[in-house]
Each structure stands twice: as C-alpha cells, then as structure tokens.
Amino acid sequence: LQPMKPLKATATTSQPVLTLQQIETIFYKIQDIYEIHKEFYDSLCPKVQQWDSNVTMGHLFQKLASQLGVYKAFVDNYKIALETAEKCSQSNYQFQKISEELKVKGPKDSKESHTSVTMEALLYKPIDRVTRSTLVLHDLLKHTPADHPDYPLLQDALRISQNFLSSINEDIDPRRTAVTTPKGETRQLVKDGFLVELSEGSRKLRHVFLFTDVLLCAKLKKTAVGKHQQYDCKWYVPLADLVFPSPEESEHCPQVHVIPDHELEDMKMKISAIKSEVQKEKANKGQSRAIERLKKKMFENEFWLLLNSPAIPFRIHNRNGKSYLFLLSSDYERSEWREAIQRLQKKDLQAFVLSSVELQVLTGSCFKLRTVHNIPVTSNKDDDESPGLYGFLHVIVHSAKGFKQSANLYCTLEVDSFGYFVSKAKTRVFRDTTEPQWNEEFEIELEGSQSLRILCYEKCYDKTKLNKDNNEIVDKIMGKGQIQLDPQAVQTKNWHMDVIEMNGIKVEFSMKFTSRDMSLKRTPSKKQTGVFGVKISVVTKRERSKVPYIVRQCIEEVEKRGIEEVGIYRISGVATDIQALKAVFDANNKDILVMLSDMDINAIAGTLKLYFRELPEPLLTDRLYPAFMEGIALSDPAAKENCMMHLLRSLPDPNLITFLFLLEHLKRVAEKEPINKMSLHNLATVFGPTLLRPSEGESKVHLTLASDIWSHDVMAQVQVLLYYLQHPPISFSELKRNTLYFSTDV
C-alpha cells in the first residue's frame, strides 16, 4: 500500500506517473488483502499478549483460510499486473526508476524499519504469503495436542490452504516452476516476441524466448483442433556462449535479400482495399462467410508483409560455432533485445548443454509462459480494439539535453503501421554538441498507428565500422522512448508540446495530427500574386513561360545534385526550409538561386511536391478526373492507349507541357533506382495523388469511410501516373499533330 499511495496521488494531477486504471491493475485487490490480515492480526494480538492455557484461536485461522478467495482474484490478475508494470516501466522512465527500488516497511520490531524491493518481487509477496501461512499452520498443528479444541479447526484451515495452493500452483506464473539453471536458480522468462529469422535463405517467423540464462528460438507446431498447442525448439544459445558479432565479423554472413519497396507498397494498398471491402460487407450486414474469406485473405497478405518487410539485421553468434540472423523492421526493437540480453550477461553465467528431457520441459513451458500471444498483424485485433490513427502526424523535433559529453547526434522517428514499427523520419546530424537544437518538422503518414517512438543516435564516422550491408545501423543508440498516440489528445488543431525522457536524456518535441479527410483539401490562394495556390495558367501567362519557373528551378536543382539521393521525393524535407523556399518563390525574390544552391535537396524536392499539392485544381484537372479513372480501368490495351492519349490532348497547354516536363524528369530519377532506391512505382505513389486528386468542390467525401474510399482512389491515381511513366516518350508536338485525326469526343 505504501508505494501505491503517492502513485494514486499523482494520478489525478496534470503529470501522472501512472493512470488510475494502471494503478488499479497493478495493485489489484491489495487493499482487500490488507483488510483481511489486519482483522486477523488485530484479533490475534490481544490473545497472545494475555496468554493462558484456555486461549483458543483456531477459529481465527479457519476464518483466514476461508477468505482465500480474495487471493484467487489476486492470483488470476497477477500475470496482467506484472505485464502492466513491465510495460509502464518500459514507456515511463520515472516509473522505471521507482519500481526498481520501492521503499516498504520492514516487519515490526525488526532492525530494518524500511527495506527496498523491486516491483516484481513485491507483487510476488502475497502469493508467497499463502505458501508461508500454510507452513505456519503445519508447524502449529505439530505443537497442538490432538484433544485441544483448536486441533480440528487448524486441521480444517490447513486442508483449505493446501487445496488452494495446489490449485493456484498450476495457474500461477509457471516461470516460478520452470526448469532450474545449472546453478540451481529458477530459470525465468524475461522477454519473448515474434522475430523473422533468415534460415537457409528463406524468411521464417519465429517466437523467440529469452530466459535468465538462455535464448531459445521456437516455432508453434501445427496441431489438430482442440489439441494443446506446443512449441518446437529450433535452436538455443546459452547466454554464456552468446556474442553479438561486430559488422566486420559478419561480412561472411548471408546477404539479406531485400524486397523492393514497390512490392511492399503494392501489398499495403491491397490490404487497405480488403479492409474497405470488409467494412462494406459489415455495413451491408454481409454474409459472415464472405467476411471470413476476406479476413483470411487479409491475414495472408499481412503475414506476407510482416515476413518480408524487415531488413535491419540482428545477428546472434554462438561461441561454439553457429551464427543466426534475425531481421527486424525497427532498430528500437533490436536494441531492446540486445539490451535485455546484455543485462542478463552481467550476471555470472555458466555454459551448459541441455539434455533432451530438459529441452522438452523448457520448450513445453514456453506455451504457458509466453507474454506475446498473437502475431502482430492488424487482422488479429478485435473489432472493439482501437484501430489506431489514419492521417498525417506533424512532428517537430526541437532539441535534446542531458548528454554527458559532446557528440554528433541525430534522432529518428518510428511509428507502427500494419501492426509493426518502421522508421519514418530522421533529423540531420548536429555536430559536436551536448545540446543539439534540431528544430526540424516532419510529416509522417499514419496507417493505423498507436505509438510514436523517438530514438537518439550518436553518428559513427569511423570508416572501419561502416559496413557494406546498407541496412546495418552501426550508429550508437544514446536513448530511446515511446509515447502512445491518444486520438483525443492528438486531434487538436494546435501543436502539443511534449518531452520524452530516456536514460537521463530529455528530447523535446511537438506534434499535431490531421486526419485524412482534412489533409486532402486544396485551398486556392486568396491573393493572385505569387505562385503557390494560384492557377497554373495565370502563372505561366504572367511569367511568359511554358512551364512555371518554380517547377523548372526545383527540377534543375534535383537533377544537378539530388538524383542519386536515397529516397529522393519520398523522404520529407524539413518543413521550415520548405516554408522558407515557398516564401521566396512567392515573393519572386532575386536571391532564389543562391538559396536553392545552399538548401538541403529534400527540402527542394518537398517544395516541388507542395507546389503541385497546393494548386487550386490538380495539374490533370478536375474536369478530366472521372475520365482518367475510367480510362485506367479499361482492360483492352488499344482502347486504353487511345483513351489515355486523348485525355492528355484534352489538357490545357500549360498543364500538358508542365506534366510532360515533370514526366521526363521522373523517368530520369528512376533510371538511377539502383542508387536512389526510387522506382517508377515509388515515384508514382508519391506524385499520383498530388497530380490527380480532385479539389474540394469536386470530391464529395463521405466522412464515414473516408479512409477506405481514399485508399481505393489513391490506387487508381497511382496507376494513372504509372501508366504514363512506363509509356514510351510522349512529345507535345506529336500529341498535337494527332489531334486532327480525332473527333473531340471519344
């Protein structure tokens, strides 16, 4: 109760350490258990103080035993309490510090009036208490004559207690009864989860269990319905023999086959489309068979994505020979596994070999012990679980402090989409400082996201460590932390400032969220000067140009020094830089060229995208949008070709010339795909919606299923642009010459 009080007191303040619900879960039934013991103690105490041979107290023990039901409730909740405490201390540095040593009162009259224990040990105390009470009853009976009136009462109390104990020993944390380590300590499960292993050249989903002294890699066996599920051990490494090979040593490791981005993107689109079908079926009270079929298909697709998207290598080596390779999608998770193993390795560990029986028992205990029950895909979520956020999260990473010595520092941001975490943004490196001031803004697309993670790295410039495998992250993580994206808190128009604390480092950031339907609005500029939000025909006429100056300048700069930049057009530029460029172009400032040559290339790419996104009507026009949608859906290649070319001819000249100019540029960018990793498909995904998405008046967005309609439309928009990107070169004069042969309406 002692540690619970201050936590409860802060729960209702503006800066709670834990929420009331978390406190309720962790300290479940503690007050009731306390009351039972207090009543027992208060009745027993006077009897012991005024002792004579006629005192009876069997009824007190009998009553205590009869109240063990309250313990049953505590025991049933014990696992959840432990998991909650564990989760809270992972995400909350303050609570982690508190729960590592909790101050509690020592027994009365003992020398230690205060002792400190860990949260886990404290939560085990009540269970321990039942065992100890049973032993006390046992001893008490030995010293009670059989004809004493208390004897049958104590016997009854002992019977109840023993039955209770044997019933909970099955339920209670089987970790306590897991196999013992060579040194005779109990082997406890510390962490488990699903990881992708690269085994014999193919990707396999494994359930990995980290025990006190061993890492065990297992897979769930296929079993007949109704049979008890079992794990099958693939391999294990005693922690005493486990080492992490450095990048140099892992040169001879198998090369990771990375799935091209566009295949992953295609799969995400497919999943979104199936999701909207499921929604439609549900809305139309569709047949459950049809819904089940769709859900099965969705699970297969999500499983494929889960298996194929991770690319960050996590290597494990056994000193006695074999090496193993896992692939993760999040460096945050990789470092959590690494840190958990390294913490355990600080203890004095012994090497060992498990006999087949021991291995069987240990693998058998995995099923009961596991804390992660479901593969992390969204189709495993219940309907009532929060679907997460869909839309755009704007994050400004301000600064960080708390570093002991100066270093080259940067941050990355990860969010969960489709059930697993991926890195979405990265700040620039701030050189040689203890107080980096990044002040960079990022726009991150959320696909059902519930958490944001921030990792802070020290950049490694040591040539020997930089390794050939481009997904190997050799930079050192200085700190990491995560926060829940609470839909209520985030969905305000205003910026919301926050601090994440990690290993003594504080990172300041702000965020705001725009839901999908809000972020899709094109708003025409009120003023007709400037270029952003102004009709393209107005701008080209004013400039006496065929292609707006801003488009020519940005493209020229990207071709000059950005064409080999990894993720060009996909990686967001710093928002403040983009706003600065926007202002300069709008004011037609004479310093434009100087500014362009100094500016980060991603900001220039971002300015070009912003220009097209803010056009009052899309480059390919509102009028033709329905026709583009129909044209791309045609199945006959000749009819499609005719229609798609005719649609280009129907565009106003400035729109057509600018579109063809951009098209040739994007093709040149895609030629460098081996270096910049931007395929035609990636570029179509980035630019399709920007060039085609209708403006507000045209699209009557039904807000209910905005995200589903959205995903279907976006797929079509991407396909339209991809069609033109994959088409042999199209010239303006050729198109216009052919106009003569066509009637105006096809």
UniProtKB/TrEMBL annotation:
Rho-GAP domain sequence ranges: 534-732
InterPro entries, sorted: Abr/Bcr, ABR_PH, C2_dom, C2_domain_sf, DBL_dom_sf, DH_dom, GDS_CDC24_CS, PH-like_dom_sf
Alphabetical list of Gene3D superfamilies matching this protein: C2 domain, Dbl homology (DH) domain, Pleckstrin-homology domain (PH domain)/Phosphotyrosine-binding domain (PTB), Rho GTPase activation protein
PH domain mapped to chain residues: 188-346
Domain C2: 371-500
Keywords: Cell projection, GTPase activation, Guanine-nucleotide releasing factor, Synapse
Compartments, record wording: Cell projection, Axon; Cell projection, Dendritic spine
PROSITE patterns: C2, DH_1, DH_2, PH_DOMAIN, RHOGAP
Origin: domain of life: Eukaryota
Main location: other
Full protein name: Active breakpoint cluster region-related protein
Organism (species): Cettia cetti
Name of the gene: Abr
